[in-house]
Specification:
The complex is a heterodimer of chains A (114) and B (111).
Chain A: E1 5-7, E2 10-13, E3 19-24, E4 31-38, E5 42-50, E6 53-57, E7 64-68, E8 74-78, E9 87-94, E10 104-105, E11 109-113
Parallel strand pairs in A: 2-11
Antiparallel strand pairs in A: 1-3, 3-8, 4-5, 4-9, 5-6, 7-8, 9-10, 9-11
Chain B: E1 4-7, E2 10-14, E3 19-25, E4 30-38, E5 44-51, E6 56-59, E7 62-67, E8 72-77, E9 86-94, E10 99-101, E11 105-110
Parallel strand pairs in B: 2-11
Antiparallel strand pairs in B: 1-3, 3-8, 4-5, 4-9, 6-7, 7-8, 9-10, 9-11
The chains are: A mainly beta (114), B mainly beta (111).
Chain lengths: 114, 111
């Protein structure tokens, strides 16, 4: 059974550009959440999607957006990139949202903004 | 605002020792608490999930406890091995249904 797949694994962008990251959840999982991990701020919740609807959103500016498709795959987009957006972006999936469900993480997308 | 703290930030012990990692949180209104491990440059692997109504969970050499009233959890690792070297993170699912993370404990097991 394939795990959570994130693409691309590594990318370098210039300030002001935009970036789109992709996440394919484990087959059968319908809930996808995104996290940002930086050395200074640690792990922070970005947003969660279930059945193509955003269920929850963390405290990030509107430059950060996401969506989920009917096959549960998800993308997140960051527009007008800033140096501080350099981070490891992690995607996680679970069967459905809920406190009793284990979440499974992908290996992340390393974004460097120069 | 929920805050999660992990102590110590780093820990180095000889192989074979039993050890305890600590996690504390400021708001007891949580749905669950989870422990994860992260290997360098990798994603996170879920180790144990404790529901708010539970006191502990066990998996192999790992045992996690939860005392919601005092806002504390411990992760006990028995008979540590070099393969246990990683960063261990705890996270609570708060009342807004968001995972709030600790900064992690970097564990090194010396052969």
């Amino acid at each position: 059974k394939a795990g959570v797949t994130q693409t691309p694994r590594y990318l370098i962008k210039t300030r002001g550009q935009q970036v789109t990251l992709s996440c394919s959840p484990i087959s059968g999982h319908r809930s996808v959440s995104w996290y940002q991990q930086t050395p200074g701020q640690g792990l922070q919740f970005l947003f969660e999607y279930f059945s193509e609807t955003q269920r929850n959103k963390g405290n990030f500016p509107g430059r950060f957006s996401g969506r989920q498709f009917s096959n549960s795959r998800s993308e997140m987009n960051v527009s007008t990139l800033e140096l501080g957006d350099s981070a490891l972006y992690l995607c996680a999936s679970s069967l459905v949202p809920g406190a009793g469900n284990t979440i499974y993480f992908g290996e992340g997308s390393w974004l460097t903004v120069v | 605002k929920q805050e999660v703290t992990q102590i110590p930030a780093a820990l180095s012990v000889p192989e074979g020792e039993n050890l305890v990692l600590n996690c504390s949180f400021t708001d007891s209104a949580i749905y669950n608490l989870q422990w994860f491990r992260q290997d360098p440059g990798k994603g996170l692997t879920s180790l144990l999930l404790i529901q708010s109504s539970q006191r502990e969970q066990t998996s192999g050499r790992l045992n996690a406890s939860l005392d919601k009233s005092s806002g504390r959890s411990t992760l006990y690792i028995a008979a540590s091995q070099p393969g246990d070297s990683a960063t261990y993170l705890c996270a609570v699912l708060d009342s807004n249904y968001q995972l709030i993370w600790g900064a992690g404990t970097k564990l090194i097991i010396k052969p």
